[in-house]
Amino acid sequence: MNLDFMKEFHEYAGVKTIGIPRALHYYRYGRLWLEFFRGLGFECVVSEPTTKEILTNGINRSIDEACYSLKVYLGHVDSLIGKCDAVFVPRIAGFKLREKYCTRFEALYDVVSTVFADKGIKVITLSHDWKSENDIEEDYIELGIKLGKSKKEAKKAYSQAVKASQQASQAEAKEQRAILSQEGHKLLLAAHPYIAHDPYIGGQVENFLNGLGCKVLYVDRANTKAAVKRSQAMVHTLPWIESREILGTIDLYKNKIDGIILMSAYPCCPDSMANEYILRTVKDIPILQVTMDVQDGTAGLETRLESFVDIIRFRESGGYGKE
Q1: What pTM does this model have?
Q2: Pairing between β-strand 99-100 and β-strand 94-96 as defined by DSSP bridges
Q3: Per-residue pLDDT for 8 more than 60?
Q4: From residue 42, how far is each of 15, 34, 35, 83, 143 by CA, in Å?
Q5: Pairing of strands 215-218, 99-100
Q6: Pair 140, 127: CB distance under 8 Å
Q7: Where are the alpha helices (DSSP H) in the chain?
Q8: Which of 87-91, 297-301, 308-312 has the lowest mean pLDDT?
Q9: DSSP 95-108
Q10: Of 26, 192, 275, 291, which is most buried by a Cβ count within 10 Å?
Q11: pLDDT tens, residue by residue, 160-195
């Protein structure tokens, strides 16, 4: 059998350039995806950082009830049209019964395929469910085979991608540990990575806080395994892995930081439950709850952040609430 001839008729035949939306799981797995696809010989195009135009286009593609982060994601998909042969839209639902992702991640492939049906874009997906009998490596290998590569090539690309991703994450974690030992006010931005690291959303918060002389810490740069373990001891029924990471990191860091910015994207259903638990149970440390939406004004947000930092400084000087 002529295998080279057969490769021309695989599921994603003709795909040379893969587009990756810079939103949602990109901020968790983006490095791995880029290394994996490049390791298989594909060119990757990542959408530009979020802008007002990208958000507006996403809003126009969404129903009103969709959460802010999903609207941003659809805007990024829209921005990749005409720049690639196919768009990568994974379906990663979670890994264990108590380590799921929000249902938007389960439906993402179907949402994108339906919303952009009029554009005729080709969508590449990888599907992993918390009920899956396969481990995640097997799913990536299967994707590599669908892209016309051999099992050996796919396995090698995945192994190298995991190694590169872990090295980058370890470097970020080391940098954050160094910040924890430094002088100055340290604030934990307790938010999902796709909120905290998006320059249009969490980025403006980080920049403003840095301007006030504060150092910003992130949940995904902490020891997330230890954080999840802590969260399990605190509450057994919380089903979402990223909510567990946020809760557990707060518990790990609460004696090492000066305050917490509890940031969510409106209307996030997991956060509406997890944040209420945090606000009711985490004591003796200032917490500012911030909900981001499609409004682009920043004056009110900046006023709240500045007032929050003033409160922290007041407590430090021996003011009300400081033992």
Answers
A1: 0.92
A2: antiparallel
A3: no
A4: 8, 9, 10, 14, 13
A5: unpaired
A6: no
A7: 3-7, 26-39, 52-60, 68-80, 103-115, 136-146, 151-180, 193-196, 202-211, 224-234, 241-253, 269-281, 299-316
A8: 297-301
A9: EETTEE--HHHHHH
A10: 192
A11: 999 999 999 999 999 999 999 999 999 999 999 999
